[in-house]
User: Which sequence fits this backbone?
């Protein structure tokens, strides 16, 4: 199925993009001399650089395509992923958690677990994170190849290998430094490549009010239909949204997933590190103006027989992910098509580079140096980081081939996050804010939390557990089940951690200074003017979030 | 003895460069499309989105290059 054809100038634009990312990787190689340069980009980035990279690492093309398609399917509820499902967690990370992360000079999130608790908790988290990251990286790689094959007719193996080798080349040359540089270029390409679709869609339909007027009420509101799950397309209640998505899944991802938090660690000082997620929060809130409005434009057009617009079908069922590519095909002439395809490729590769740079850091510091070679020098770690990058890419490609033979694995992406991140957030929260939580409590809470989340998922899949027992509703989508499973996994980890901590030996206060609230000196003084404080910008971000929710209530 | 590399260019320099080059290519394509329109026109092609969007990319690219011309990371 070849829906979008590329001309010579479109190919030239794609080639320019590949040449740029490889060229930047080569240029930065001469500045990558130590393990700190490779794994933490030298810790010299401004808050704007770290902030845009923080968002770009999360802004994969699969998400852009999937969320536009989900809007077509579920309506405005998708905006919850960008607003309540992201912003409170990002602000909490900036205001409360970043001082502990940044001031302890750790190189990774598992590194914090080692300082706060012990080696076994660190290794447990490092191994689960490494496995999750490579699994997600491989599935993303396969998904990218599938998208390029479906919409452009490209051979799936060629597009997969081309992007995997490119990412491997520039990350191997200069690690996080080149990953961050290319992520920021990709950030601009994604906005320039995809926002025009929405502008042209609004011009085509008439106005943004016209778009909202032409979709059902259950599709153009955020909360007003959330009391009864049968009244909204996502089949979820406000409780599932707030507890599962807004609290556990969101906080679990944004505050503990090293893929994004690593970008803040690369900031030049604590204030810049705290400003990183706050700056990212404003751009995160703006993304629905591409994906949600884009999805609604596709819905309005496909409901209008005069428009000639329709989504693709795969074996009789609608391919919702085709919404954004079909809009590109409708509005973009030659040249702009190349820009749109480059934006999608950039989104895929930004996510891929983010996964690999997080994996090589966790592998090198939290598994290799922690367990295998404790006396490794800086030069040796730099070498190991490069080896881990290449091995990580090879495992990702192998996973992609596995996913090709088992395509249902793609349905489990959200579930994978709820196995690892949801319980980890309980461990982190208790670790940072309750000083009597013990190493044994953290280890067993985390282990039982992860096992319970996986067991609930497996139990429902095999029919051993009724889904209604988890979702507390007789009607629920897979997405609603993910929200609720994450909530229960978090609660189990939270409870077990407290229970085991009551009966086991706690660490002395002297070992917890700088790691736990109450034992840590406030580093930012009251002398700083209010408009220089991260809290000021966090409040502005929270106010914008509230206004958006009221407008689209 | 190895010489010290020059000071690193800031990321904004590279952002400016890629927006300038790709924006320029989009404008060139837009000029071709305006002079010799393809047989099958896309929706709203009559307002020449390639010309003004490519132009915007070039302007933003020049802005980043200009404001970072003598800066290092």
Assistant:
């Amino acid at each position: 199925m070849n829906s979008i054809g590329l001309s010579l100038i479109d190919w030239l634009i794609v080639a320019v993009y590949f040449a740029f990312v490889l060229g930047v990787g080569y240029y930065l190689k001469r500045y990558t001399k130590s393990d700190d340069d490779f794994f933490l980009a030298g810790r010299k980035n401004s808050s704007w650089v770290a902030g845009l990279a923080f968002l770009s690492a999360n802004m994969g093309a699969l998400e852009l395509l999937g969320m536009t398609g989900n809007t077509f399917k579920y309506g405005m509820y998708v905006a919850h992923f960008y607003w309540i499902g992201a912003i409170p967690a990002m602000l909490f990370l900036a205001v409360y958690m970043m001082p502990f992360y940044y001031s302890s000079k750790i190189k990774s999130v598992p590194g914090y677990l080692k300082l706060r608790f012990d080696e076994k908790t660190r290794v447990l988290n490092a191994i689960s994170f490494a496995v999750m990251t490579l699994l997600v990286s491989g599935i993303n790689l396969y998904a990218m190849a599938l998208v390029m094959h479906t919409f452009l007719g490209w051979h799936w193996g060629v597009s997969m290998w081309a992007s995997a080798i490119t990412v491997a080349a520039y990350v191997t040359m200069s690690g996080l430094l080149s990953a961050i540089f290319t992520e920021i270029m990709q950030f601009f390409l994604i906005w320039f490549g995809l926002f025009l679709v929405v502008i042209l869609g609004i011009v085509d339909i008439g106005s943004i009010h016209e778009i909202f007027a032409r979709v059902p009420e259950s599709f153009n509101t955020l909360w007003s239909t959330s009391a009864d799950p049968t009244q909204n397309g996502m089949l979820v209640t406000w409780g599932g949204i707030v507890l599962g998505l807004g609290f556990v899944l969101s906080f679990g991802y944004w505050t503990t997933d090293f893929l994004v938090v690593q970008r803040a660690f690369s900031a030049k000082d604590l204030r810049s590190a705290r400003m990183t997620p706050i700056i990212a929060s404003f751009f995160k809130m703006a993304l629905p103006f591409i994906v949600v409005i884009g999805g609604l434009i596709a819905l309005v057009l496909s409901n209008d027989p005069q428009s000639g617009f329709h989504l693709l079908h795969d074996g009789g069922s609608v391919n919702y992910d085709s919404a954004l590519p079909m809009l590109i095909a409708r509005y973009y002439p030659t040249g702009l098509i190349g820009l749109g395809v480059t934006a999608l490729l950039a989104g895929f590769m930004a996510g891929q580079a983010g996964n690999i740079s997080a994996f090589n850091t966790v592998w090198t510091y939290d598994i290799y140096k922690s367990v295998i070679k404790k006396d490794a020098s800086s030069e040796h770690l730099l070498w190991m980081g490069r080896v881990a990058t290449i091995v990580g890419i090879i495992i990702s490609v192998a996973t992609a081939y596995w996913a090709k033979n088992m395509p249902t694995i793609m349905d489990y992406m959200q579930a994978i996050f709820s196995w690892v991140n949801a319980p980890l957030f309980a461990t982190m929260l208790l670790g940072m804010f309750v000083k009597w939580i013990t190493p044994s409590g953290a280890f067993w809470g985390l282990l039982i939390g992860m096992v319970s989340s996986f067991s609930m998922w497996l139990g429902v899949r095999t029919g051993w557990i009724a889904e209604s027992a988890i979702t507390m509703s007789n009607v629920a989508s897979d997405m609603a089940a993910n929200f609720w499973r994450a909530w229960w996994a978090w609660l189990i980890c939270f409870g077990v951690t407290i229970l085991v901590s009551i009966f086991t030996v706690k660490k002395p206060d002297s070992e917890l200074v700088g790691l736990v609230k109450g034992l840590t000196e406030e580093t930012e003084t009251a002398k700083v003017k209010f408009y220089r404080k991260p809290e000021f910008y966090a409040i502005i971000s929270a106010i914008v979030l509230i206004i958006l929710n009221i407008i689209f209530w | 003895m190895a010489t010290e590399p020059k000071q690193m260019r800031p990321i904004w320099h590279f952002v400016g460069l890629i927006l300038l080059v790709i924006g320029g290519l989009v404008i060139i394509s837009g000029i071709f499309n305006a002079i010799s329109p393809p047989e099958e026109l896309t929706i709203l092609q009559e307002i020449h989105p390639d010309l003004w969007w490519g132009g915007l990319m070039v302007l933003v690219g020049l802005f980043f290059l200009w404001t970072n011309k003598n800066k290092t990371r």
In short: The mean pLDDT of chain A is 89. The longest strand of chain A covers residues 313-314.
